[in-house]
Write a structure and sequence with these properties.
heterodimer; A: mainly alpha; 19 helices; B: ABC transporter involved in vitamin B12 uptake, BtuC
């Protein structure tokens, strides 16, 4: 158990003390490469220096993705087939969203163990609300109410953590139990489904996970997306350069845009292969843009707003943040609200994915929290706060999805998959701890 | 917490120490009453002062027990909660939580947590159950139990090493351990619908079965009670007398006498309840279940280890202030690793008791590691063990376990139909939150660093 990260710097003596006496040599390793680099070569050298200094960013998780892909492809040649890859992407979206949710808590140095069951509750609530024999609400009202309910629960947990200073893992552990009970009550002892295509509201929910863009629309969407993101990046960079601010070299921006385009084209090309045994299923699933929107929104929120800077400040050193005038209570509470909100979005996907929900499915939603923590930590988010981005959750979610999918393809039983995921979580935590030790934090 | 003897004063202080260094005003409230009291009334006044300053010891859990007992007695159909048969059932069920809560206390004292106790305990239980199977391994009962406990201890030491050496947060290590052992548990049980059963006609399996299901005959129960109360009472009295002779601080004679009388009273009540025939018209079942003395032995051992050994003092010292303990020469790595190992070994006994409680059947239905660990942490915290380290005793685990067992069984008596399943989740969750809330607020009341 990590000691409380509140206004008690002595409690976190090991990591906290060293920060005050951070020496110059260590600090140099922490400078973003774009601040010192003039050319691409210099940039890459500076980046490599950072990686060696323990600040390796997304490198380990990208390597992990390659290792997972190669080893499962060797074990089973179906792994990298277009059909299985789309399946893998679809499965991974849930891990990705839950990992993004978890990162909001992890960045503060807290943890939210309830994300899995918030997802479970969200899925039951949204399914119940559109039942034609029950509430019979339009799908968009049902979605809004569901997300509000999840956010309200997050506010409750956040208040206990932030105001009463109860340890977050206990609050969310007790919370997930309560949620499990509440979800079973909402479910009403029977099953609830959204698979009836006669009702438009059920159909919309069903299509969240199972619906796809047609191949042509997929390509157009990709072109628009890459065009917009690329132009945005390029213009922003140009503006910064005009204003005399620090910017990465132009070649790097071009490289980033090209990489983005290549990844996008590969993704769309894979999704546009017909993956049905009979008939035609092709095109990009709706959930992929949904995840991208959540990723973009959370990235902007954390990287470009004052709120985001406060989150990192509190995760890095709560006492310093407090003395700088940051309201610990409100930022912490909001992070738990955001975690629950994103978990609620995952709940919409979950309901759509499962089509019909039962008590047993609700119970399994709890195991997702471990996968979410594992995905976030594997992705490069620190368990100790202050380090991580939501893109890490997406990449980590892909690793977890790959492991799950690959083991399943190999016919490994579910309890052994749990064992492997536990081992992966431990390995990620060990790497996190060791990289912190190697890094400048504890020089 | 009733006062610790002087040796463990470090443990009484808060986990975060800023305030303690300048804690002159609060210090008075922290003095054990026996240091200042000469008479019973002075002792009580001193104790009341401590309670009011937030150091309320077992008082809240006792009050909660009374509240739970009265409430369920009123709301259960036919007011059946306090029937002897139900009470003995609750004792049996609670012993699992008691043993696990004592185990968890050891780790909580360090300000760590073990979320894998439930899964590890169940693995220990399955190992023991598998080893006494005949045909099968066919081990003698004592060897099988020992093997179960030792395996758990080894699992615990692995977790302990990851926490102590690599400094990975214990809740992450043990969360992964929980998933790992839950998976292995299903494998060991032989699939999701596998089970291990004890054959009661075979001696070694019968012994394991009887740990909870077996009873001591009524007469023997009374004799045992007399021996236990006599031995503990004499020891307490002699120890107080010796300390007084040597000029050490000791509670007033009347306090010692009252304690012994209370002990005898509780013992007589338990034995009287257990000796009522709780069987059917055809079959008489009466007497104290074996598990009650077994839990008392575990309680006794852990009370001695925590209160009277160097290891116990180190646990409190590290929980109170790890840096201070380290500078005083305590090996943090060794103590932490041992704490996790011993926690898991103790938990293994809880797992064996659980199987015995469910009439010698181990299956994925009777064994839910997730719920078990939550009940365990809730039991320890509600019993008065602090999540922030340095505060708690084995006795707190026992009282908390009884309370949780009472609540769990009380709810199942209510005939709530479809509501009873969700309540099995909601109640422990709510109880855990309330217990931790009280823990946090009471620390604030004692002038800990949290009152910033």
């Amino acid at each position: 158990m990590t000691t409380d990260h509140g206004e008690t710097p002595t409690a976190t003596a090991d990591p906290g003390m060293a920060d005050l006496t951070l020496d110059a040599r260590a600090a140099a390793a922490d400078v973003p490469p774009e601040l010192v680099a003039g050319s691409l070569g210099q940039y890459l050298r500076a980046w490599w220096g950072r990686v060696r200094g323990g600040n390796s960013g997304v490198l380990p998780v990208v390597l992990a993705i390659v290792v997972v892909a190669v080893s499962f492809q060797i074990a089973n040649s179906k792994f990298l087939s277009a059909q299985n890859l789309v399946n893998l992407f679809e499965q991974s979206t849930i891990y990705m969203l839950l990992a993004i949710a978890e990162i909001f808590a992890l960045l503060l140095g807290e943890i939210d163990l309830s994300v899995g069951l918030v997802m479970g509750l969200g899925s039951v609530v949204v399914a119940e609300l559109v039942q034609p024999t029950g509430a019979n609400l339009p799908w968009w009202v049902a979605i809004i109410l569901t997300l509000l309910a999840c956010a309200a629960w997050g506010a409750f947990q956040g208040t206990l953590v932030a105001r009463l200073k109860m340890p977050s893992f206990i609050v969310t552990l007790g919370g997930l139990l309560i949620l499990e009970g509440v979800a079973i009550i909402v479910l009403g002892g029977s099953l609830v489904g959204i698979g009836n295509s006669q009702y438009k509201n059920e159909l919309v929910l069903y299509d969240i996970f199972w619906g796809t863009f047609s191949p042509l629309v997929s390509w157009i969407l990709l072109a628009v997306l890459i065009g917009a993101a690329g132009t945005g990046l390029w213009l922003r960079d140009a503006r910064k350069r005009r204003s005399g601010l620090e910017t990465p070299p132009r070649s790097l921006i071009a490289l980033k845009i090209v990489l983005m385009a290549v990844a996008g084209i590969a993704l769309v090309a894979i999704c546009n292969v017909n993956r049905a045994h009979f008939g035609t299923i092709e095109g990009v699933p709706y959930i992929i843009p949904i995840v991208l929107v959540v990723l973009a929104a959370s990235t902007v929120l954390l990287q470009r707003t004052r709120f985001g800077r406060y989150v990192y400040a509190i995760g890095g050193n709560p006492e310093a943040a407090r003395r700088a005038g940051v309201s610990l209570t409100s930022v912490r509470t909001w992070c738990f609200v955001l975690a629950a909100l994103v978990s609620g979005i995952a709940g919409l996907l979950f309901a759509s994915w499962q089509v019909s929900l039962t008590t047993n499915i609700i119970k399994t939603s709890n195991t997702y929290v471990l996968l979410a923590v594992a995905a976030a930590v594997i992705g490069g988010t620190s368990l100790f706060g202050g380090r991580g981005k939501t893109i890490h959750g997406v990449l980590g979610g892909l690793v977890i999805g790959g492991i799950y999918n690959g083991l399943y393809l190999l016919g490994v039983s579910s309890q052994w998959i749990d064992v492997v995921v536990a081992a992966v979580l431990l390995a990620a935590a060990v790497i996190d701890v060791l990289s912190r030790r190697g890094g400048p934090q504890q020089a | 917490m009733t006062a610790d003897p002087g040796e463990t004063r470090v443990g009484v202080t808060d986990a975060t120490t800023v305030a303690d260094l300048t804690a002159a005003p609060e210090a008075a409230a922290d003095v054990p009453p026996e240091l200042v009291a000469q008479s019973l009334s002075q002792y009580l006044r001193g104790w009341w002062l401590k309670v009011r300053s937030g150091d309320s010891g077992v008082l809240p859990v006792l009050l909660a027990m009374v509240l739970v007992a009265v409430t369920f007695q009123i709301i259960t159909p036919e007011h059946s909660f306090l029937r002897p048969s139900n009470l003995v059932y609750i004792f049996g069920l609670s012993t699992v939580y008691m043993v696990l809560a004592i185990a968890e206390t050891v780790v909580l004292l360090l300000a760590e947590i073990d979320l894998s106790v439930g899964a590890v305990a169940l693995i220990g239980g399955v190992i023991t159950f598998k080893l006494v199977q005949q045909p099968g391994a066919g081990w003698p009962w004592w060897a099988a139990i020992l093997a179960g406990l030792v395996s758990c201890g080894v699992f615990g030491s692995l977790a302990g090493m990851l926490v102590a050496r690599l400094k990975i947060p214990s809740f992450i290590v043990t969360l992964a351990g929980f998933l790992l052992f839950s998976g292995i548990l299903v494998v060991v049980l032989g699939g999701a619908d596998g089970s291990v059963n004890l054959n009661t006609s075979e001696f070694n399996q019968r012994v394991v079965y009887d740990l909870v299901q077996g009873v001591i005959p009524p007469v023997a129960s009374w004799i045992l009670l007399a021996v236990v109360v006599g031995a503990v009472g004499t020891a307490q009295w002699l120890r107080a007398a010796r300390r007084r002779r040597q000029g050490l601080v000791a509670p007033p004679k009347s306090v010692t006498a009252i304690r012994i009388a209370l002990l005898a009273l509780v013992g007589v009540a338990v034995v009287a309840v257990c000796n009522v025939n709780r069987g059917t018209a055809l079959k008489t079942v009466q007497g104290v279940p074996w598990v009650i003395p077994i839990v008392l032995v575990v309680l006794g051992i852990w009370t001695l280890v925590l209160g009277r050994t160097r290891f116990g003092r180190y646990l409190y010292a590290i929980g109170g202030n790890p840096e201070a303990a380290r500078r005083a020469g305590v090996s943090l790595v060794a103590i932490r690793t041992w704490a996790f190992a011993l926690c898991s070994a103790t938990a293994g006994l809880g797992g064996i008791l659980l199987g015995s409680f469910f009439f010698g059947e181990y299956s994925t239905n009777t064994a839910d590691p997730g719920q078990l660990v939550l009940y365990t942490v809730a039991a320890a915290v509600i019993g008065g063990v602090s999540l922030f380290g340095g505060r708690g005793k084995a006795l707190h685990g026992v009282l908390g376990g009884l309370l949780i067992g009472g609540i769990a069984y009380g709810v199942s008596l209510l005939n709530l139909g479809t509501l009873s399943t969700p309540l099995q989740y909601i109640l422990p969750g709510a109880v855990l939150l309330v217990a931790v809330g009280i823990d946090v607020l009471s620390r604030r009341g004692t002038g800990g660093a949290h009152s910033v």
